[in-house]
Amino acid sequence: MVICKMQTINRLMAMRGRPVCHSQLANTVDESRVTRSSTVRMQGIRPQGGFTLIELMVVVVIAAILASVAVPSYENFIARSKRSQAKSMLLQVADKQEQFFLDNKRYAATMTELGYAANPFYIDGSSTQQASASADSIYRLEFSVTTNTTYSAAAAPLGAQASNDSKCGTLSLDNTGRRDQSGPATDCW
Predict the structure, then answer these.
(1) How open is the CA angle 146-148-154, to the nearest 5 degrees?
(2) CB-side exposure of 87: number of CA atoms within 13 Å?
(3) Using CA atoms in the order 77, 82, 83, 85, what is the torsion angle rounded to 10 degrees?
(4) Which of 25, 26, 36, 132 has the fewest CB atoms within 10 Å, counting from its CB?
(5) What is the mean pLDDT of each run of 10 residues along the chain (189 residues)?
(6) CA distances for 7 relative to 26, 53, 57, 59, 87, angstroms
(7) pTM (global) more than 0.90
(8) Using a CB cutoff of 8 Å and minimum separation of 24, what contacts does 178-182 make?
(9) How far apart are CA 130 and CA 127, in angstroms?
């Protein structure tokens, strides 16, 4: 590594950034005019660090495009996950109804006859049964039609689940095993 003395910035520009060694400087410049600040260690010209505004804007646009695709997909996944909790709970209700029918020769008229906390009852995001609606409730389960020989159980979405899963709407299951939904979608079950 050679320590070279360089004149001022203007002198560097005139020489196109090449280092001026002491021997060259002695031929062209008086030694007394060279200041300590003009002495630099030259290892080559380093490019400036950082990003340009254009590069940052390209990254922002790419991130926005990815977010516009990912967020709706994620919300759809969450809605389907919560719907599967309601379907599972409806199948449990149907199982209990069939057991009740075998024991009593009739279907239960209320959810409380099947051992649930309330009629209707609510489930939250962790499938915990609740006697009354809360901010965490995602579905309300109840019997929509019940006779001694028939029943129809329904799971109606609540809150954000109602708007996020409007294609399926209320899910229902009857004593014949027929599965239905109130929304226009056909792949809810």
Answers:
(1) 20
(2) 16
(3) 130
(4) 36
(5) 47 54 51 50 66 93 95 91 93 94 93 89 87 89 89 93 90 93 88
(6) 11, 34, 40, 42, 82
(7) no
(8) none
(9) 9
